[in-house]
Amino acid sequence: MIILSALIGSNTPSHAQEHAQPFVVGWAEILPLFRALPDEAPGGFGVQVMEEIAAKAGFEITFKKFESAEQLIRAQAAGDIDILPAIAALPLLEDNNVFSAPIATTHIRVFVRVEDAEELHPATMSGKLIAVPSIPLGPTGEFLIGRNTAVQVPVSTLSVMELLRGTVDALIASDSVTIADAHSLRVDHRLVAVGEPLVSFDRVVTVRSELSDLVAPINQAISELETTGVLEELRNQNQVSVAPPEPEVLRAGIIHNPPYTIIGANQRFSGFSVETLQNLASAAGIDIRFIEIDEEAYAQGPSPSRYDLLAYQPISSDAELRMDFTAPLDRSAYAVFTRQGKGTEITGLESLTGLRIGIEAASIAKQLAEQQNNLVLRVYETSGALLNGLLDGDVDAILAPRHTVSLAAAALGAEDQVQEVGTPFHTIDKAIALRFGLGQTRERLNAVIPGYLASSTNSRIREKYFGTPSFWTTERIEFFRNSLILCVFAAIGAAIAWARWRRKKETQERRRFASQLIDQIPLGMILVSPQGSIEFANRFAKEMTADGHSQLVKGRNFRSVVAQLIDDGTMLLRTTDKATVLAHLTPEGLRDAHTNEFQLTNSKTYVRNAIPLGADGTLLTYLDVTDDRLRLEEIENLNSQLLQQITLSNAANEELRAFAYATSHDLKAPTNTIALLVNEFNNSVASKMTEDEIELLEDLTATNKRMAQLIDDVLEYTNSIGSEIQRTDIDLNDVLSEVLDDMKADIEDSGAQLTFSTLPAVYANRGQIRQLLQNLIGNAIKFRSEDRSPLIEIHSEPATRKCVAFSVSDNGIGMPSDFVDRIFTPFSRLHGHQDYEGSGLGLAICQRVAVNHEGSIRVTSTEGVGSRFTVTLRGAAE
Questions:
Q1: Residue 450: which of 216, 251, 159, 699 has the closest Cα?
Q2: What mean pLDDT comes out for the span 260-264?
Q3: DSSP state letter for 415
Q4: 456-466 and 402-412 helices cross at what angle (nearest 10)?
Q5: Which of 323, 239, 254 is CA-nearest to residue 34?
Q6: How far apart are CA 854 and CA 814, in angstroms?
Q7: What average pLDDT does this structure show over 365-373?
Q8: Are 857 and 658 in contact (CB under 8 A)?
């Protein structure tokens, strides 16, 4: 261990060495300064910086967690802990502590909604409601507050939601904390800081006065970390340094990793990931530039100083702490492979003990294998070398992704010499990775990802890079070329005449089919030519207004139609003016993608999306969101009533407010999906109908179906939120009996066997408890194992005073322990829609019901064995 005296330039032992070690470092959940990692260990900027400092300064530390920031600071002031990193030099700490040199600088700034950024500026803002923290804001801040009305809001994710839902017009808060809170809610793209910082302060390492001799080596370590760039890297990774604005052109980092990313001569970039990112960026209207990076930069991930994004990166809990991700694009399955006819005794990783196992150096399989005991590992640099090692008998089995082995085997002509044994031992989602601060880019990509994944373009690129290699080698092509030329010329004459007749007939049939199909889509569609005239309007679009059938006729100028609707009062303009609306409908305006929302005199509300199609004109889609807006208005009214009865920190209100955004946001994905599918169909209307087109139509129907189910489940989840519920003493046995009667058909169809003991009485809302039991039993039936009959056990469990508990256990498929914290998150799914139906809200509702009753729900699960859910509630009055 490096001694402190060496760091401060003395040959005599430092006094710090005489103090009892390890030194206690305090922390609490304060994003982005401190956070609990998936294994509950401390993490975040403050923890990482303190670990680096301790390693350089040569002393030992241990971490102690506190429940709140206030408790943490008071513990340091009272001397209950030794060191507190990443907090400001507060007056409360000055008497009994000393402070290090700065490790970060935080700015107090004014945040507004993105759509209000041009209108609201600190220099001119007046008569507005501003959420403010309980800290000094300096002369500029005090002057700003004097012209407006201050509202005290706790500094948390709640303050961000108050701003976004319109309760306040602006928010004054720490830039790093606010951006981190917004990112945790996935709404960082909806707010922006305006004007110059009101106040700035340094974050330091606070040390008890008795340990003042630690400050010199700590400052020396801070200086070294700053000089080497480590400190700046930690600030960027943890969003303590606020990221710069989104650039006009994003830099995409590329390493040579065929077939995903290929770097050819003269910096020519290609590969599956490159083409996928290019197509998504084009659909989203994003400019990107590919740059070559080295392995070290690739491992470190995106940052403002390196590059902005990476294509097709694995999503892991560790990676999510260092970078942002879009919605998943792909999923890789890792499996065990042996030579054909070998390895019949292998059932999974646990059965590989004592065998020689091959792994690729830069692979997740290597990390997983190294976590196992007693495995004899041999590392190969490439997938080809890995497969050769297996075929040559150097190893007994290899661990690798399915598609990697498939490609390598095809390249070697060894498809029939390799076999997969057992089931995949690991799956991982892949997505586009972005540096923090690119929320707008992330959401624009998320909007086009669903449609792109369902498109034939995606299928074609996959086949290009991952399909079976061509049978036609160079030698065979040379052999058959001359004879094929003769055959082709002989067939061309007859084919031309037949093709002309066939094409004419197919074109007529396609046009008839397309017209009927588009008329059935519950989405208004108007195709406008580059000159602004109407080319086509479907039935839904014509029925939006009373005179739609006579107004939306082919050849008429669409801009003049809209002008007439505005002039006669049919189209109501609330947040914009006539000139702005008509400017979007000029030939120049139609070349740009845009979205508008408007209301008609029949009280219907529509969202219009303009999708430029190049030389084919512009497709305008109209989605009826009337019911959704009414629901949102109802939710807003309910929120206003709840805010008068409960405190601002009530978790239930926070989720309900977030729901208003989530519902609106989630409705965009089906719109974009349908638009892209129709676009695909439109582009292929002049050619022969293919299986891809049929598949696109089927995807369209499935997408709309899932959208309807999602809205229903979200409304059900919302209904479970709130503390104002009627409660009585109820017998759980009676409620269970009712639930089992309702689910009798499902139980019999699944062959499930239920055993239960006498359950306790609870003080609760009967309807919500009934929903909880129904969801838990339904999940046990849904996620059953294919190789055994479902066994469901419901029993009473021990509980603390005044509480009761019961458990619902099953012998189903279970889940990995890494996922037990995710399953209660709304919309969280561990399986795809093709495997198990549902929206990911069932267990979130269960947790909400438990919280409503001052209770809790927890789960223990073993993959392949089953799960056990334990619910704790308030007992009935004795």
A1: 699
A2: 89
A3: G
A4: 50
A5: 239
A6: 27
A7: 81
A8: no
Confidence class of residue 550 from pLDDT cuts 50, 70 and 90?
confident
Alpha carbon separation from 90 to 70, 82, 204 (Å, rounded): 12, 16, 10
**pLDDT tens digit sequence for 807-847:** 999 999 888 887 877 888 877 777 766 677 777 778 888 88
DSSP 598-623: EEETTS-EEEEEEEE-GGG-EEEEEE
User: Could you give the count of Cα atoms lying within 13 Å of 791 in the half-sphere of its Cβ?
Assistant: 5
Q: How confident is the model at residue 233 (pLDDT cuts 50, 70, 90)?
A: confident
SS3 state at 106: strand
Which region holds residue 696: left if phi is over 0, alpha if psi is between -120 and 50, else beta?
alpha
- The set of residues, in sequence order, having a beta carbon less than 8 Å from that of 615 and lying 6+ positions away, is 530
**245 — pLDDT class (breaks 50, 70, 90):** confident
Report the pLDDT value the prediction gives residue 150, as an integer from 0 to 100. 84
- Give 785: exposed, middle or buried? Use CB within 10 Å, 0-12, 13-18, 19+: middle
pLDDT at 641 over 80: no
308 or 522, higher pLDDT = 308
Beta strands in 296-353 (DSSP E): 309-314, 324-325, 330-339
> What radius of gyration, in Å, describes the C-alpha atoms of the chain?
31
The pLDDT of 428-438, averaged and rounded, is 90
Q: What's the confidence (pLDDT) of residue 682?
A: 55
Q: What whole-number distance in Å separates Cα of residue 708 and Cα of residue 563?
A: 34
Model pLDDT, residue 218:
94
Structural tokens at position 253 = 């980092």
- The closest of 358, 361, 350, 362 to 377, measured between CA atoms, is 358
Return the C-alpha torsion angle 292, 298, 301, 306, nearest 10: -40
Q: At what angle do helices 456-466 and 439-453 cross, to 10 degrees?
A: 80
Q: Which pairing describes strands 42-43 and 35-36: parallel, antiparallel, or unpaired?
A: antiparallel
SS3 88: strand
SS3 content of the chain, % helix, strand, coil (to 5): 45, 25, 30
| Per-residue pLDDT at 652 exceeds 90 | no
Alpha-carbon distances, residue 545 vs 357, 366, 456, 573, 604 (angstroms): 69, 62, 35, 16, 10
Q: Take residue 125 and report the two structure tokens written for it.
A: 């803002």
For residue 258, the SS3 value is coil
781 phi-psi bin (left φ>0, alpha ψ -120 to 50, beta other)? alpha
Q: List the end-to-end C-alpha distance of the chain, in Å, as a whole number.
A: 62
- CB contact at 8 A, 431 and 315: yes
Residues 198 and 111 sit within 8 Å (Cβ to Cβ): no
Q: Mark 788-825 as b/e (b = at least 16 C-beta within 10 Å).
A: eebbbbbbeeebeeebbbbbbbbbbbbbeeeeeeebbe
**618, 528 contact by CB (below 8 A):** yes
CA-nearest of 811, 823, 821, 793 to 864 is: 811
* CA–CA gap between residue 501 and residue 483 (Å, rounded): 28
- Alpha-carbon dihedral sign for residues 280, 281, 282, 283: positive
At position 709, the amino acid (one-letter code) is Q
| Element (DSSP H or E) covering residue 477 | helix 474-520
3-state secondary structure of 335: strand
Cβ pair 755, 743 in contact under 8 A: no
pLDDT at 663: 60
Q: CA 726 to CA 765: how far, in whole Å?
A: 6
- Secondary structure E strands in 716-825: 728-731, 753-756, 761-764, 791-797, 803-810
Contact 57, 22 (CB under 8 A): no
